[in-house]
Amino acid sequence: DAGVIQSPRHEVTEMGQEVTLRCKPISGHDYLFWYRQTMMRGLELLIYFNNNVPIDDSGMPEDRFSAKMPNASFSTLKIQPSEPRDSAVYFCASSPGGTRHHPSSYNEQFFGPGTRLTVL
Amino acid sequence: AQKVTQAQTEISVVEKEDVTLDCVYETRDTTYYLFWYKQPPSGELVFLIRRNSFDEQNEISGRYSWNFQKSTSSFNFTITASQVVDSAVYFCALSDSGGGADGLTFGKGTHLIIQP
After folding, report:
1. Scanning every residue of chain A, which has its alpha carbon at the shortest distance from the alpha carbon of B109?
2. pLDDT tens digits for range B7-16
3. Are the C-beta atoms of B107 and B5 separated by less than 8 Å?
4. How far from A34 is each of A83, B18, B74, B79, B89, CA to CA, in Å?
5. What is the DSSP pairing of strand B74-79 with strand B19-21?
6. pLDDT digits (tens, 9 = 90+) for A79-109
7. Which residue in A56, A91, A95 is closest to B100 by CB distance?
């Protein structure tokens, strides 16, 4: 399996522009998570989905941020308009969820390589 | 609310020394899970271990060992005979599920530098 795929790996944009980050989870995984990593705040959960449905978006910083999961193999995190303080590494992670032998409480999250976003 | 504290921002040791990374957590849940992740200079997050709140047995994996103590709400990580390749940022994390069905709450990380 290719693992969690994120694109682009690096993004440089100017303040006010729209930014779209993309994530392809591991096939068969039911959960998808978006995290943000900054020097000041560390790693923070932004939002997560179960079976394409957003479950908890309480970590989304403000209305400029939105996330969608139109199908089981694709998710986007959009920032519109972007600001310099949005500069961070954004990680996507996925998890298998539960099975009869391994209920969801025992499954780890597999992280993608991250997207480094720089907003000038 | 859940909270993870890694008080050591940066640790520097000479190769072959043993080093312990501290992790203290807070949660109101009686069932929870603790994790350690490694982030090497390349930036990816590498899963190291998961423990549940009902299992306080210490675990050893090669040069790595973990000491879980509920009485002090700590989940410390020790690297024995450290190597330069161990240089990375190490994160402790907490979840009230196994981590697969809920988000992780991360500590701020400890930057470990192993000098040759």
Report:
1. A42
2. 999 999 999 9
3. yes
4. 19, 34, 27, 30, 20
5. antiparallel
6. 999 999 999 999 999 988 755 445 555 568 8
7. A95
